[in-house]
Each structure stands twice: as structure tokens, then as C-alpha cells.
Amino acid sequence: MAESQQPDTSFYDDMDFEEVLEHLHAAKRILDDLKTQQKEAQKLWDFLSLNVAPDRFEKQNVTNITIEGYRYGLRADLQTSVLKDNRVALYDWLREHDMEDLITETVHAMTLKAWVKEQMMAGNELPDDLLSIHAFTRATITRA
Q: Is residue 138 in some structural domain?
């Protein structure tokens, strides 16, 4: 099903409540299985792309190769993060070196969601001209 398409809801019109919940549970199991498969595939991808394949490229003395329409190669890469206890010092350093454009203020989406939910439950007004809030009800499944 294309991302913009909605499923044919008429399929569920004649189902009783328990049948709908069985379908809901089946969809949840499929999602859980896919998440597990994705995690396992990511671990395999990481192992092959970071260890096995670079080693084989080196042993074959090859930097890139095309096989059956796919080009395989090596690329230098790196991973960086700000050390939590040194965040302020790094920001100061970046400002001193005219790199303040790298500094951005962010609000984590889940933190904002939790805060908005808390404010709504307390009956506090929120700036609807600054926030897009879409309240909805979702069915859930938890192990009994």
C-alpha cells in the first residue's frame, strides 16, 4: 500500500469487536517482528560493512568494484558527539572560533509531547499559534 493511501475500511464494517481486535493484534505482531528483523539486519549490516567487507577490500587490494550493476567501495567516515559534561565548554569554543552557526537550540519531540500532555491535563492554555497539536485516540495492546 502506498504511503498516502488509506486501507479499505469497508473490509472491517461487518466484523465484530473481537475480530477487529484480532486484526489489530495481528498487525501489532507483524510490526514487532519487523522491528526485530530490522534490528538484526542492522547488526549484520554494521558487522559486514565495518569489519568483514573492509578487510576483504584490503586483502584484494581493491578500493571499489562493480558487480551486477552495483558499485561497492570504501568510504572514510567518522562518528562524533558532544561530551555531555563539556557541552557548554564546546559551545564557548565554537563561538571563540567563529563557528556559532553550528550551535542550534532544539527541543526533543518526545519531551515536548510529554510537556504538552501535562499542560493539557492541568488545563493550562498553550500557544496554538506556535504549536501544532493533534489529539487522537489510539487502541493499544499490552501483555496481560
A: no
Q: How far apart are CA 94 and CA 102, in angstroms?
A: 8
H helix runs in the chain, sequence order: 17-47, 53-60, 87-96, 109-121
135 in helix, strand or coil?
Answer: coil
* Structural domain total, the chain: 1
Per-residue pLDDT at 21: 95
pLDDT band at 3 (very low <50, low <70, confident <90, very high): low
Task: Tell whether 69 is covered by a domain.
Answer: yes
Q: Which residues in 111-128 are b (16+ Cβ under 10 Å) and which e?
A: eeeeeeeeeeeeeeeeee
Collapsed DSSP state (helix, strand, coil) of residue 71: strand
Is 44 within the bounds of a domain? yes
Please, how many CA atoms are within 13 Å of residue 138, restricted to the half-sphere of its CB?
6
| 96 three-class SS | helix
